[in-house]
Write a structure and sequence with these properties.
This protein is α/β, with parallel strands linked by helices and about 475 residues long. The protein has two domains: about 15-25 and about 400-475, Immunoglobulin-like; about 35-395, Glycosidases (TIM Barrel, Alpha-Beta Barrel), CATH 3.20.20.80. It has twelve helices and 16 strands. Strands 2-9-8-7-6-5-4-3 form an eight-stranded parallel beta sheet. The chain is globular and about 70 Å long.
């Protein structure tokens, strides 16, 4: 995408002093829960308490946790399934997952539990690492009954992480070049949903959890076996999993799948949050309308419930030192806020999630995990050494600024707000080294606010002081 529009300085200082205001744009008519995923730090007993304290200061009230089937299952590295009642939660070693869910309950935080691969070795078709090949639906159904009995109706469930990516589910493609993973996933989802129903009468379950990019078709003749390692584009995956053809018409006798929402990971590239991928089956944050339209067509075909909400359950902006997808840390803070505003502006989106508090170590090139390597994500609020990035200061009080009607439209959010509160908006002119108060604005009951202004500052930032006296000040936004 193009970089964020550069804001031009005002020609008259009186505009700054008077802070002439334009009518504020209307707020979107829906709420948007914000989830945070910091599973590696939360799973460790040595970092859990400090991480929870950090998340509280940042304004977190909901967690996404990826629950690995392999981590908790008995005999998970054995080729032979042990003799045990797979529907009995007492047969599993829930370990640190229980500690996370218990702490979240104490804090009255919501929990989204994504149950995912790797599977136990004995539950896969080839019994080979990384244990993601054709997991057995019957085994998964029994496991999900145990999961539901253990964690109950107090959490939201999501079935499988990025099933359209070969690092999490194999095979992605059949030897003839047709997609394989969508129908495998459909079987796993149906089994998992049935398993949860045996434990919970009306479970809240998300479908999809799709990665943002992939291939709509592959050329096995040209690429041979390499073609089968490509990920499946999310909308191509959606259609095949729902038994729809390219025109979103039912193909076959598949019934409607029950679900509470569609989960997606709308990552974008270094071009920024408004980037439009030329593959129309890809869905990044800048092309959310593609997913909205696809879900509408799928509902019209009676493949899914009508008016299905979108959950953006994993998102982050890569920063340097990621040499493939990273932007500067200043741009990371700006792009992250823009992406959240895009999600907030879409009335179908009910959840947005930040992936990583602390960066991973720098790993291999994108796709390295398919070949047994590691991929480091630099989407965190902190560097790998724990030093904060600008995003750490901006995430609790995100701010965007865009040209609008002869002036600028500002949008912001105070995550720690528990009701209407006041925020100080600051502006800095070109050539100036200091900020001045533009206006004090009042948020709505959820903490969101907007402001239209004719004051053309070069940089804007916000300042908010909590009722406990903790001061939050975001970084400069161009």
């Amino acid at each position: 995408m193009l970089k964020s529009r550069k804001l031009f300085p005002t020609a008259l200082l009186t505009l700054l002093v008077a802070a002439f205001s334009l009518p504020a744009p209307a707020l979107a008519n829906h709420t948007q829960a914000t989830y945070f995923e910091a599973t590696p730090l939360l799973l460790s007993s040595t970092t859990r308490a400090a991480t929870i304290a950090q998340l509280q200061r940042l304004g977190v009230r909901a967690l996404r946790v990826e629950l690995s089937w392999h981590d908790v299952a008995p005999g998970s590295n054995s080729a032979t399934k042990p003799a045990f009642d797979a529907t009995d939660p007492n047969a599993y070693g829930w370990g640190a997952y229980d500690a996370i869910v218990t702490e979240a309950a104490r804090l009255h935080w919501k929990v989204l539990l994504t149950v995912t691969s790797p599977a136990p070795r004995w539950a896969t078709s080839n019994k080979k690492a990384p244990y993601v090949t054709r997991p057995d639906p019957k085994d998964f159904q029994e496991f999900m009954t145990a999961v539901g009995r253990h964690y109950g109706a107090g959490v939201t469930y999501s079935i499988w992480n990025e099933a359209n990516h070969p690092a999490f589910l194999m095979p992605q493609w059949n030897s003839n070049g047709t997609p394989a993973s969508p129908r495998i996933y459909r079987g796993l989802y149906q089994a998992g949903y049935t398993g949860l129903q045996a434990a919970i009468s009306s479970p809240t379950v998300l479908f999809g959890e799709t990665a943002p990019t992939g291939y709509s078709k592959v050329n096995v003749h040209r690429e041979h076996s390499r073609a089968l390692l490509h990920d499946v584009a999310p909308l191509a995956f959606l259609r095949e999993a729902l038994c729809l053809n390219s025109h979103y018409r039912k193909s076959g006798s598949c019934s409607l799948l029950p679900m509470s929402g569609y989960a997606h990971h709308a990552y974008t590239i270094a071009a920024g949050p408004h980037y439009v991928d030329p593959n129309r089956d890809d869905v990044a944050i800048g092309t959310l309308s593609r997913l909205s339209n696809a879900l509408g067509k799928a509902a019209a075909a009676h493949a899914i419930p009508a008016n299905l909400p979108i959950w953006l359950t994993e998102f982050g902006v890569q920063s340097k030192p990621n040499r493939f997808l990273g932007v500067s840390v200043a741009q990371q803070a700006e792009f992250d806020a823009i992406a959240e505003q895009i999600a907030w502006s879409n009335p179908r989106v009910v959840a947005f999630s930040q992936y990583l508090l602390r960066d991973d170590p720098v790993g291999g090139a994108p796709g390295a995990s398919v070949h047994g390597g590691t991929v480091g994500f630099q989407t965190g609020l902190e560097y790998v050494n724990g030093k904060p990035k600008p995003l750490y200061a901006s995430w609790p009080v995100p701010l965007t600024a865009t040209k609008s009607h002869g002036g600028f439209s500002l949008w912001g959010y105070v995550r720690n707000a528990t009701g209407p509160t006041t925020v100080t908006v600051l502006v800095r002119l070109k050539g100036s080294h200091s900020y001045r108060t533009l206006k004090t604005v009042t948020t709505n009951s959820l903490g969101y606010w907007t402001l239209g202004t004719s004051a053309r500052g070069q940089f804007f930032r916000v300042r908010w002081t909590s009722p406990e006296g903790v001061r939050y000040e975001g970084p400069p936004i161009k």
